[in-house]
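Narrative of activities, Objective 1.

The group set out to show that a structural description can be obtained from nothing but a protein's sequence at a throughput compatible with the screening campaign. Below is one input-output pair from the validation batch, recorded exactly as produced.
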Amino acid sequence: MSTVRQTVENAAIGIAVLEDRDQFTMLRQPGVAAAIWRRQLPTDFQSWVDELPLENLPCARVTVRTELVRDAVEAICANAGIPNNSKRQLLVDDAVLLATEFAALMDTEFLRLRYDVIRDDACRKFHIDAVTARLVCTYRGLGTQYGISTDGENPKRIFSAPTGAPMLLRGTKWPEPPVSGLLHRSPPIEGTDMTRLVFVIDPIFEHSSET
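Output recorded for this entry:
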């Protein structure tokens, strides 16, 4: 694991590069605004995701108890018409793994899960999410772009999270100072014929009836 813990002008800008999911707690370290688990998904799984027809890519949003994540993702995959094979099972298993670790990190029983299929420049402006923290994992296409900003302007240097690498980001509601100085965005892809499949997890501390 390599870690850059740094604060500039009272803003956390450090990024922790994780070797294992057990290190998600690095997000709680002072000065760490984000953490990236630099794992590599199996090549055959990546090829399978990249070749899934657009009509079979999952696109849904649901709020569930952590222990019901598997049932929820199974239903999402079934509704999308994804063939019930070992690759689909890996997709489900991975959602359960990420959700379980993230829920433990955030100490919450409820999570909001979201699968987005993106083919345009949605959310292309650099920003910080209005949440406590967020996990973003891009399964297909370019990963989330990010960079440092201490003056509210766009980052001068832009980096990209690797495809398949979960990225944990502090939001504006993170309870401990300093505030995050790390901005992120969806990469601009309009006109490239690229399709992104993005999985997002948010912690829910006050349960709602959203499904």
